[in-house]
Amino acid sequence: MGEFRMGELSFDEWVKTVPGRVKAEACWRFVAYPKALYLYELAWEDCGVLVQDERGRAVARQLIRSIGSISANVEEGHGRGVGGKSYLYFLRVAEGSARESKGW
């Protein structure tokens, strides 16, 4: 059968593999959050390829940091209370990380 690759799972298939404790979090209902987690898993695969080339190592380090920052900032914003000024700040940071990730 070969080695399993995350990229072989569609988003909907991947969601079925996510533990219930993760889906129970309030931030899971924010549409961008599960997609950010899925993107993070896909990025790990891409980084596995990038690190095989010396030129790709720096890109891989920055890519995984910026992509990981998307879901992390959504989580932090939710942790500080949905709807407040702080929440909106962390969503803006998450959006900035998503844009940076696209660039990498």
Kindly describe this structure.
The protein is mostly helical and 104 residues long. The protein has one domain: de novo design (two linked rop proteins) (Up-down Bundle), CATH 1.20.1440. Helix content is 72%, strand content 0%. The protein is built from 5 helices and no strands. It has helices at residues 11-17, 20-23, 32-50, 54-79, 85-103. Helix 3 runs antiparallel to helix 4 and helix 4 packs antiparallel against helix 5. The longest helix has 26 residues, at 54-79. The radius of gyration is 15 Å and the shape is flat. The chain starts with 10 loop residues before the first helix and ends with a helix. The mean pLDDT is 90.
Reconstruct the topology from this structure.
Blueprint: H1 11-17, H2 20-23, H3 32-50, H4 54-79, H5 85-103
Q: How would you sum up the major sheet? A: none
Q: From the coordinates shown, what is the CATH architecture?
A: Up-down Bundle
Molecular shape: flat
Question: Helical percent range?
Answer: over 70%
SS class: mainly alpha
* Mean pLDDT over the full residue set: 90
Approximately how much beta-strand content do the residues carry? under 5%
Q: Which CATH top level class fits? A: Mainly Alpha
Low-pLDDT segments, ≥5 res: none
Give Rg in angstroms: 15 Å
Record field, number of beta strands: 0
In total, how many domains does the architecture comprise? 1
Kindly report the CATH topology: de novo design (two linked rop proteins)
Summarize the structure.
With 104 residues, the protein is mostly helical. It contains five helices and no strands. The protein has a single domain, classed as de novo design (two linked rop proteins).
